[in-house]
Specification:
The protein has 9 helices and no strands. The protein is an all-alpha fold. It has a single domain, classed as dinb family like domain (Four Helix Bundle (Hemerythrin (Met), subunit A), Up-down Bundle), CATH 1.20.120.
Length: 172
């Protein structure tokens, strides 16, 4: 297995966990805050997908799927590429209204497919390409940051799902 396939398998596994965690949840459950100062499952799933979409669109120098395919309409969000959840206040999180789990997963699937196409075409030389004006100085650093964010947020989603549904939900 090459590094491309290995990295792709991490994104695939993250999606599989996200899909299991969202399956069967209502919009009310997606929007339930375990505590008034906590994120919701729906917000976390949207945020992790928005971060991946924005990051890979930037690496590929393409338009975000969020804008290109008008996903913002399905989420009833503003048509802004910068609307990713970074910098959201507690009020922003509390007022976030999730669409259905199917819509969240469809958006994530579209982002994942583009991510996989990019990773399949990525060369080792491109991994070390310097990114000017970025928090992460290279393509490798940016991809590592997206993986880290996805794993953290999928874990948070799974934990909140367990709080809502109890033990055993991951067997679905």
């Amino acid at each position: 297995m090459g590094w491309n396939q290995f990295v792709t398998s991490i994104f695939d596994r993250s999606f599989q966990t996200l899909e299991r965690a969202l399956t069967g949840l209502t919009e009310n459950e997606l929007d339930k805050q375990p505590n008034p100062d906590c994120n919701t499952i729906g917000w976390l799933a949207w945020h992790l997908t928005r971060g991946q979409d924005r990051s890979f669109a930037g690496l590929m120098q393409e338009e975000q799927i969020w804008m290109k395919e008008s996903w913002y309409q399905k989420f009833n969000r503003p048509p802004k590429g910068t609307d990713t959840g970074f910098g959201h206040s507690l009020e922003d999180v509390a007022t976030f209204q999730s669409p259905s789990a199917d819509i969240i997963l469809a958006y994530h699937r579209a982002v994942l497919e583009r991510t996989k196409r990019y990773l399949a075409s990525l060369t080792e030389e491109e991994l070390e390409r310097k990114l000017s004006g970025q928090v992460f100085p290279t393509v490798t650093a940016r991809i590592a940051a997206v993986i880290s964010d996805n794993l953290q947020h999928v874990g948070q989603i799974a934990y909140i799902r367990g709080l809502l549904k109890g033990k055993g939900w991951s067997n679905i």
